[in-house]
């Protein structure tokens, strides 16, 4: 009688951290392109997750993202991060018009040197990430057009006892959208980190 | 004869053809006639010479541009530098001919030269016509261009047209002269040709006759005749030679005249070319100027339009910004008003809290009053009981009175019985003796009397007691009636107060609900207001929690008190029973005391505590509800991204794109503010200037010009921006300014042209003077004036060769010396150069030597030619 053996997938904290931080990089880039925060000429095509994603070629922006995501990577591996939020603000009034929130739930039992049994294999995780990216791209259809000059900022929610790495980081407020409409997007999990996505936006930002 | 007639026919046909055709064809006919010349003349002809005139004529008829484009002079075999020069584009700058035209080596070449000159004249005419046409077309084009540019049309300068017409007239005159001379030359030539043809025919005839005679040899007569004919032939030959030499001289004279005329023509052409070049340059300059002006005006207009657009955009942006600011201000004022309102509401809330507190106190008091009321009710009930007791007592009293009355009646009966008994005793004592049985009866009657007396005493005592009890009952009844009336009044008062308190309670409850709602909305606002309000929110939560703790504590205390009260309750609770029992006993004994009221107060305390517990339970439930609501709200805010500062830190990079954008916007705003201030200052200046101008008013043309000048000066003082603004504001001023500038430009151009003409005239005069006095033609060789390279050619050198390196010297003038540049021509004068220039360092002496040499050689040439002529003749 043949015996079927279930295949078990393993994932390490380092691998999960890399996957999640990579997702953040491409998600933020996609949002910045889709919402027109930066000119489309400053983006170039790249193949990732089986999709053609747009990645900025603006060196300054790239440096900012890399700097912030390096720290995010560190906090992801320390399991102290709770949220990563992309806040889009109107430059003229500093009003928050859109807020992309990625809730991160960390499995505190994960240890850096021990691989964990993963619920999904890497391919499935990437497929889930691709679904989230697709949803971000598709969200342009229902999000209101931003017909004014906007800027963005990335906020990181961490544990209270998290130590700040240098003087470049500072505490700030949650910067919520007043009278917002929320749309929950898909989520994915690496078995160590679970990322839920949500976009909150002002229904009539031009008023 | 047939030959002669054929020649005559050919001549006639060629003459008629010459009349019909143009001059080129006429020249070609003359060329075709020259085919009958000897082989020597034929050798001088270029291989395609007969086709030249036709080709040139065709080309000329097709137009100059076609001629220059389809066949260059070199391709056509034209060696005349004039033709070459005219074949060039007239727009190119004038350059002196690089080499002299080939010298007329023969009669045929002279004819060719004549043909070429005529062709060139025709071409020149056509060219001039084309040029005029071009100039007209260019003028039209320029006028169209001006019209397209919106500029007023400008007629060409009248002096320029006059000069051109004068030059054209001179050229026409010289052409007429040349044509006359050429016609004369052609007439003479045709006559000479006719003579030559006749001589040729005669020679042929003589030759034929000689041949015929030679065939008849042997005859002496014929020999003599042959000798005669030979002699005649010799004579004819001599005559022919004479005629030929004479014709040659005439031709030479004509050639010289033609050369002179050609020279004059060349000079005129040069002048015309120079004028044409100058005019072309001036036209070009004028065009450029017009174009420049037009483009400048267009640029200025465009700049003005762009400035206006930029200003309007800036204005709209500023308006939008102002509107935004106003909106922000309004919003901030609203917020301020809201804050004030909130503060007021907070104050009101405080006052309401105080009122609530007082209301709570009133409620507490109400409770006390209610308890007092209950006590009073109890007292009233007790009073009612007393009243009932009184009634019972009265009934008892009545019964006692009845009993008393019956006892009195019984006592009266007994007294009557006693009196009867005493009467009977007396009767009996009378009879005592008589009867022993009567004694027993007496004793029994005495005992019955004693008992009746005892009963009477008892009844009297009972009556007294009853009377005492009745009086006490009546007293207590009156007291209870007074207490009842007092309690009823108190109850009435308390009921009124209770109604008032209930009404206040309702109002306060309503107010409390309203305040609760307001506090909830205020909390929501505070929650959404940002991180600054979190502390207040947390403070409120902590206050609520402390309040809840207070309530819990109070509840615990109340429960403890309740338990303690409950432990003491049996004795206390039994009190009313006991009191009831006592009261019953007292009722039974008709005794009530006010001490029972104390126990009733204790019972009311328990009730009050119970009520307090119920109230506290209610408050606890409300607080729990509030807590749950707050937790739900907190959860929603947490879902939306709100962070609890007790557990979470929200971090960001200090240098972020939003911050940079904000800084950039601030900088831009600061810059725009500066610009606006600057623009406003300039606008004020401009308005001031416009007011001044409006006040002054242009009285006449001079005043207007002065105003324009002063405005230009003021504009230059104010600056570029102001000028732009002034252009935007006053379009009329701009046009006036442009008109003025154009007029000034025209005036300057005219002045410059006149100066140039005067300079050119003076230069020409100077050159002419130098040429005629010193025998040298001086030309500035290089276009670069700083180089100071001069070409010196002697007046004795053939005119056509004067500009050649082979017949002229090149000098470079330095600050302190003069360099003679080495050329082929200088090498011919090597010895003189060495002697005068190198050894004695005297250029003038060298040039004088050259002049003297030329003079001597030309004189020798003339004399030698004369001698030669003499020798030939």
TrEMBL record, chain A:
<dbReference type="InterPro" id="IPR003511">
    <property type="entry name" value="HORMA_dom"/>
</dbReference>
<keyword id="KW-0131">Cell cycle</keyword>
<dbReference type="GO" id="GO:0051301">
    <property type="term" value="P:cell division"/>
</dbReference>
<dbReference type="GO" id="GO:0005654">
    <property type="term" value="C:nucleoplasm"/>
</dbReference>
<keyword id="KW-0132">Cell division</keyword>
<feature type="domain" description="HORMA">
    <location>
        <begin position="14"/>
        <end position="199"/>
    </location>
</feature>
<dbReference type="Pfam" id="PF02301">
    <property type="entry name" value="HORMA"/>
</dbReference>
<dbReference type="InterPro" id="IPR045091">
    <property type="entry name" value="Mad2-like"/>
</dbReference>
<keyword id="KW-0539">Nucleus</keyword>
<protein>
    <recommendedName>
        <fullName>Mitotic spindle assembly checkpoint protein MAD2A</fullName>
    </recommendedName>
</protein>
<dbReference type="GO" id="GO:0007094">
    <property type="term" value="P:mitotic spindle assembly checkpoint signaling"/>
</dbReference>
<dbReference type="GO" id="GO:1990728">
    <property type="term" value="C:mitotic spindle assembly checkpoint MAD1-MAD2 complex"/>
</dbReference>
<dbReference type="GO" id="GO:0000776">
    <property type="term" value="C:kinetochore"/>
</dbReference>
<dbReference type="InterPro" id="IPR036570">
    <property type="entry name" value="HORMA_dom_sf"/>
</dbReference>
<keyword id="KW-0498">Mitosis</keyword>
<comment type="similarity">
    <text>Belongs to the MAD2 family.</text>
</comment>
Automatic annotation (TrEMBL), chain B:
<feature type="coiled-coil region">
    <location>
        <begin position="325"/>
        <end position="424"/>
    </location>
</feature>
<feature type="compositionally biased region" description="Low complexity">
    <location>
        <begin position="1"/>
        <end position="17"/>
    </location>
</feature>
<protein>
    <recommendedName>
        <fullName>Spindle assembly checkpoint component MAD1</fullName>
    </recommendedName>
</protein>
<keyword id="KW-0498">Mitosis</keyword>
<keyword id="KW-0132">Cell division</keyword>
<dbReference type="Pfam" id="PF05557">
    <property type="entry name" value="MAD"/>
</dbReference>
<dbReference type="GO" id="GO:0000776">
    <property type="term" value="C:kinetochore"/>
</dbReference>
<feature type="compositionally biased region" description="Low complexity">
    <location>
        <begin position="694"/>
        <end position="712"/>
    </location>
</feature>
<feature type="region of interest" description="Disordered">
    <location>
        <begin position="30"/>
        <end position="53"/>
    </location>
</feature>
<keyword id="KW-0175">Coiled coil</keyword>
<dbReference type="GO" id="GO:0051301">
    <property type="term" value="P:cell division"/>
</dbReference>
<feature type="region of interest" description="Disordered">
    <location>
        <begin position="90"/>
        <end position="172"/>
    </location>
</feature>
<feature type="coiled-coil region">
    <location>
        <begin position="731"/>
        <end position="758"/>
    </location>
</feature>
<feature type="region of interest" description="Disordered">
    <location>
        <begin position="1"/>
        <end position="20"/>
    </location>
</feature>
<feature type="compositionally biased region" description="Low complexity">
    <location>
        <begin position="115"/>
        <end position="127"/>
    </location>
</feature>
<dbReference type="GO" id="GO:0007094">
    <property type="term" value="P:mitotic spindle assembly checkpoint signaling"/>
</dbReference>
<dbReference type="GO" id="GO:0072686">
    <property type="term" value="C:mitotic spindle"/>
</dbReference>
<keyword id="KW-0539">Nucleus</keyword>
<feature type="region of interest" description="Disordered">
    <location>
        <begin position="561"/>
        <end position="592"/>
    </location>
</feature>
<dbReference type="InterPro" id="IPR008672">
    <property type="entry name" value="Mad1"/>
</dbReference>
<comment type="similarity">
    <text>Belongs to the MAD1 family.</text>
</comment>
<keyword id="KW-0131">Cell cycle</keyword>
């Amino acid at each position: 009688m043949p015996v079927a053996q279930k295949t078990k997938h393993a994932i390490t904290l380092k691998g999960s951290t890399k996957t999640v931080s990579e997702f953040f990089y491409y998600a933020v880039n996609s949002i910045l392109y889709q919402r027109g925060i930066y000119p489309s000429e400053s983006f170039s095509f790249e193949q990732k997750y089986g999709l053609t994603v747009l990645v900025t070629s603006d060196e300054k922006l790239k440096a900012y993202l890399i700097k912030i995501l390096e720290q995010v990577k560190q906090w992801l591996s320390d399991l102290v991060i709770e949220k990563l939020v992309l806040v889009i603000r109107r430059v003229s009034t500093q009003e928050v018009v859109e807020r992309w929130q990625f809730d991160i739930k960390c499995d505190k039992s994960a240890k850096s040197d021990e691989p964990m049994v993963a619920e999904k294999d890497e391919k499935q995780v990437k497929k889930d990430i691709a679904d989230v990216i697709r949803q971000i791209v598709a969200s342009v259809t229902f999000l209101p057009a931003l017909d004014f000059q906007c800027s963005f900022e990335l906020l990181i929610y961490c544990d209270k006892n998290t130590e700040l790495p240098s003087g470049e980081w500072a505490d700030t407020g949650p910067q919520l959208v007043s009278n917002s409409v929320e749309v929950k997007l898909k989520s994915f999990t690496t078995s160590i980190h679970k990322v839920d996505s949500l976009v909150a936006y002002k229904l009539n930002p031009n008023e | 004869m047939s030959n002669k007639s054929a020649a005559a026919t050919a001549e006639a046909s060629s003459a008629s053809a010459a009349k019909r055709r143009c001059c080129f064809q006429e020249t070609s006919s003359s060329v075709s006639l020259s085919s009958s010349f000897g082989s020597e003349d034929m050798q001088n002809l270029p291989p395609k010479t007969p086709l030249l005139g036709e080709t040139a004529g065709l080309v000329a008829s097709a137009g100059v541009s076609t001629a220059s484009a389809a066949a260059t002079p070199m391709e056509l075999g034209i060696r005349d530098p004039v033709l070459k020069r005219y074949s060039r584009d007239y727009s190119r700058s004038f350059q002196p001919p690089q080499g002299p035209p080939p010298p007329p080596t023969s009669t045929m070449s002279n004819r060719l030269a004549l043909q070429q000159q005529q062709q060139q004249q025709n071409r020149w005419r056509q060219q001039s016509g084309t040029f005029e046409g071009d100039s007209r077309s260019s003028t039209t084009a320029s006028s169209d261009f001006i019209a397209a540019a919106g500029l007023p049309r400008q007629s060409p300068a009248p002096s320029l047209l006059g000069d051109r017409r004068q030059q054209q007239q001179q050229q026409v005159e010289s052409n007429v002269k040349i044509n006359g001379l050429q016609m004369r030359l052609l007439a003479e030539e045709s006559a000479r040709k006719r003579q030559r043809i006749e001589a040729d025919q005669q020679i042929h005839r003589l030759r034929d006759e000689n041949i015929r005679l030679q065939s008849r040899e042997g005859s002496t007569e014929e020999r003599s005749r042959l000798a005669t004919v030979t002699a005649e032939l010799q004579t004819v030959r001599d005559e022919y030679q004479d005629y030929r030499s004479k014709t040659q001289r005439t031709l030479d004279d004509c050639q010289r005249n033609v050369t002179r005329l050609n020279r004059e023509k060349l000079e005129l052409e040069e002048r015309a070319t120079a004028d044409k070049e100058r005019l072309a340059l001036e036209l070009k300059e004028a065009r450029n100027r017009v174009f420049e002006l037009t483009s400048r005006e267009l640029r200025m207009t465009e700049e003005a339009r762009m400035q206006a657009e930029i200003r309007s955009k800036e204005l709209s942006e500023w308006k939008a910004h102002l509107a935004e600011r106003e909106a922000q201000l309004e919003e901030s004022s609203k917020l301020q008003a809201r804050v004030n309102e909130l503060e007021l509401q907070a104050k009101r809330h405080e006052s309401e809290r105080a009122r609530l507190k007082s209301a709570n106190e009133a409620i507490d008091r109400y409770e006390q009053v209610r308890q007092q009321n209950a006590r009073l009710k109890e007292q009233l009930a007790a009073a009612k009981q007393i009243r009932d007791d009184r009634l019972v007592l009265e009934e008892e009293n009545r019964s006692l009175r009845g009993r008393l009355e019956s006892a009195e009646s019984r006592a009266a009966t007994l007294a009557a019985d006693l009196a009867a008994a005493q009467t009977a005793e007396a009767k009996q004592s009378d009879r005592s003796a008589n009867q022993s049985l009567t004694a027993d009866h007496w004793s029994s009657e005495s005992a019955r009397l004693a008992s009746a007396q005892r009963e009477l005493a008892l009844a009297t005592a009972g009556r007294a007691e009853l009377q005492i009890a009745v009086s006490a009952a009546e007293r207590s009844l009156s007291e209870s009636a007074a207490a009842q009336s007092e309690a009823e009044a108190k109850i009435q008062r308390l009921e009124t107060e209770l109604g008032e308190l209930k009404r206040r309670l309702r109002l306060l409850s309503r107010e409390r609900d309203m305040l609760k709602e307001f506090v909830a909305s205020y909390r929501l606002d505070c929650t959404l207001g940002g991180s600054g309000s979190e502390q207040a929110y947390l403070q409120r939560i902590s206050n609520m929690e402390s309040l809840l703790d207070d309530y819990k504590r109070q509840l615990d205390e109340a429960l403890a008190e309740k338990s303690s009260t409950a432990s003491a309750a049996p004795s206390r609770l039994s009190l009313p029973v006991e009191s009831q029992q006592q009261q019953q006993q007292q009722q039974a004994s008709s005794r009530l005391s006010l001490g029972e009221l104390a126990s009733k107060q204790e019972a009311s305390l328990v009730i009050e505590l119970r009520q307090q517990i119920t109230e506290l339970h209610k408050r606890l439930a409300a607080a729990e509800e509030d807590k749950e609501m707050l937790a739900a709200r907190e959860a929603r805010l947490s879902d939306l991204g709100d962070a609890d500062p007790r557990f979470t830190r929200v971090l960001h990079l200090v240098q972020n794109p939003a911050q940079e954008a904000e800084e950039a916007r601030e900088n831009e705003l600061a810059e725009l503010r500066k610009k606006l201030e600057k623009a406003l200052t300039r606008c004020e200046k401009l308005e001031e200037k416009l007011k001044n101008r409006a006040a002054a008013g242009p009285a006449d043309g001079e005043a207007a010009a002065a105003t324009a000048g002063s405005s230009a000066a003021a504009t230059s003082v104010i600056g570029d921006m102001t000028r732009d603004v002034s252009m935007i504001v006053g379009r009329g001023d701009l046009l006036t300014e442009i008109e003025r500038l154009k007029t000034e430009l025209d005036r300057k151009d005219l002045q410059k042209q006149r100066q140039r003409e005067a300079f050119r005239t003076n230069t020409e005069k100077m050159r002419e003077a130098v040429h005629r006095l010193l025998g040298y033609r001086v030309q500035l060789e290089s276009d670069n004036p700083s180089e100071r390279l001069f070409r010196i050619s002697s007046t004795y050198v053939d005119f056509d060769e004067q500009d050649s390196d082979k017949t002229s010297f090149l000098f470079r003038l330095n600050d302190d010396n003069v360099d003679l540049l080495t050329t082929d021509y200088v090498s011919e004068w090597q010895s003189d150069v060495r002697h005068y220039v190198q050894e004695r360092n005297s250029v003038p002496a060298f040039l004088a030597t050259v002049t003297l040499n030329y003079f001597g050689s030309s004189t020798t040439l003339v004399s030698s030619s004369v001698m030669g002529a003499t020798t030939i003749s």
